[in-house]
Amino acid sequence: MLPTIPDLRQLRYFVTVAEEKHFGRAAVRLSMTQPPLSQAIRALEETLGVELFARTKRSVELTPVGADLLPEVQRLLASAEGLRPLAQSLARGEAGALSLAFVSTADYGLLPLLLRDFGVRHPRVRLELTEATSDVQIEELVAGRIDAGLVIAPLPSRHATQLSWLPIAREPLVIAMSTDMAQRVGRAAGSKADSHAEWLETPISLRDVADEPLVIFPRRLAPGFYDIIMDCYGVAGLAPRVGQEAIQMQTIVSLVSAGMGVALVPQSLRNLRRTGVVYRPLSESVPAIETGLVWRTAEVSPVLVGFIEIVRAHAATMEAQFAAPRV
């Protein structure tokens, strides 16, 4: 029984005969005798169910079907010849795809740094980026729908055996408030800052805004982050009044801008400049927010290995960059 799909050897024979327009010369190029070549071309025609060459005793010409098919076969062979170098690139992590999710806080400090360096070292890798809360990322990872995620610690203990964790950055919380509120608080506290820049860096106490509504993530979506913020109030002997909840940092900052309350956010959110919002350091000693990379322990592709290497390099210096205190 003849094969239903031509093999690459037959296709190469077809292209060589088409270029030489002579079976004898084509056989010499292919380092073979003419009869096996003629038999291979006949077998290819029978497999395809069409005549590729019009043969006479003196000439060989492509049929109209053969002429139309030739460029397609040439493209197919070129692609096949690229399979070996492509496979080697994939094995080295130089090509392929990486599906990466990230929490919104990472978008304002950590993520751009990692993507820049990864893009320089792995320009042929296609990145598939998705913004998602930590809990959604864990679900997507466990289900195998993403390769890795940038999440806020801690990880759920029930997935400890399935997932690997690499801490990257620790940064303090700052308080986001509307400009009007910051000015009122400054006047009440008798601020003596000499400049606007100095005023922005002057620590403020949670007690000064204890009566203001708190804008925060819902606990069900970010329990670790939520509990750290609540602990800040608890250590200060305060009971926060939750006003609004939102699942995106951009939304939280927008609500603060609208005067809906204050928010405790990672220091890197200062890069999210929004009209009517200022960020002030806290005078209380507060825990650090830790962001890290998480992936399935049993499934580490060559591309992911390359990304983890980039992350490890940044992790060595990131804490100092964000000026994060150790707790």
Automatic annotation (TrEMBL):
<dbReference type="InterPro" id="IPR036390">
    <property type="entry name" value="WH_DNA-bd_sf"/>
</dbReference>
<dbReference type="InterPro" id="IPR036388">
    <property type="entry name" value="WH-like_DNA-bd_sf"/>
</dbReference>
<comment type="similarity">
    <text>Belongs to the LysR transcriptional regulatory family.</text>
</comment>
<dbReference type="InterPro" id="IPR000847">
    <property type="entry name" value="LysR_HTH_N"/>
</dbReference>
<keyword id="KW-0238">DNA-binding</keyword>
<dbReference type="GO" id="GO:0003700">
    <property type="term" value="F:DNA-binding transcription factor activity"/>
</dbReference>
<dbReference type="Pfam" id="PF00126">
    <property type="entry name" value="HTH_1"/>
</dbReference>
<keyword id="KW-0805">Transcription regulation</keyword>
<dbReference type="GO" id="GO:0003677">
    <property type="term" value="F:DNA binding"/>
</dbReference>
<dbReference type="InterPro" id="IPR005119">
    <property type="entry name" value="LysR_subst-bd"/>
</dbReference>
<protein>
    <submittedName>
        <fullName>LysR family transcriptional regulator</fullName>
    </submittedName>
</protein>
<dbReference type="Pfam" id="PF03466">
    <property type="entry name" value="LysR_substrate"/>
</dbReference>
<dbReference type="GO" id="GO:0032993">
    <property type="term" value="C:protein-DNA complex"/>
</dbReference>
<feature type="domain" description="HTH lysR-type">
    <location>
        <begin position="6"/>
        <end position="63"/>
    </location>
</feature>
<keyword id="KW-0804">Transcription</keyword>
